[in-house]
């Protein structure tokens, strides 16, 4: 597969992010989907993905996520601008001057932004 050595961390969200992860998974990427622990409805865009439920609002969950993203090639952020920054997972954490993963491709796919 074309992307078999690529690791993607995808945050569960609205359609654009999960669809991008689905396409990458179909091309062979190792896509790890991050869900909230209390996920209420199944998602049909999970084919060929692994899934983990993490509460990013607790320090242990945030630590796990930072380690996971630090080893990834791509991060798919499906949220509105500012959400990941408030969680402590914005682009600056990984790509900034003191970044933890400067080779990371940080894809923000906020398809339904309010104006």
Automatic annotation (TrEMBL):
GO MF annotations for this entry? Answer: catalytic activity
Q: Which Pfam families match?
A: CoA_transf_3
Concerning InterPro entries, the annotation shows: CoA-transferase_III, CoA-Trfase_fam_III, CoA-Trfase_III_dom_1_sf
Tell me the domain of life. Eukaryota
Q: Which family is annotated?
A: Belongs to the CoA-transferase III family.
PANTHER family assigned to the protein according to its UniProt record, in alphabetical order: ALPHA-METHYLACYL-COA RACEMASE, SUCCINYL-COA--D-CITRAMALATE COA-TRANSFERASE
Name recorded for this polypeptide: Carnitine dehydratase
Q: Which organism is it from?
A: Hermanssonia centrifuga
């Amino acid at each position: 597969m074309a992307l078999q050595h690529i690791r993607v961390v995808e945050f569960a969200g609205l359609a654009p992010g999960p669809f991008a992860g689905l396409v990458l998974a179909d091309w062979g990427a190792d896509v790890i989907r991050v869900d909230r622990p209390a996920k209420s409805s199944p998602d049909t865009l999970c084919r060929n993905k692994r899934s983990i439920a993490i509460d990013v609002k607790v320090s242990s969950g945030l630590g796990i996520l930072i380690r996971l993203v630090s080893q990834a090639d791509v991060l798919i952020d499906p949220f509105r601008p500012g959400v990941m920054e408030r969680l402590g997972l914005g682009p600056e954490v990984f790509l900034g001057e003191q970044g933890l993963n400067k080779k990371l491709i940080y894809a923000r796919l906020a398809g339904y932004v309010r104006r």
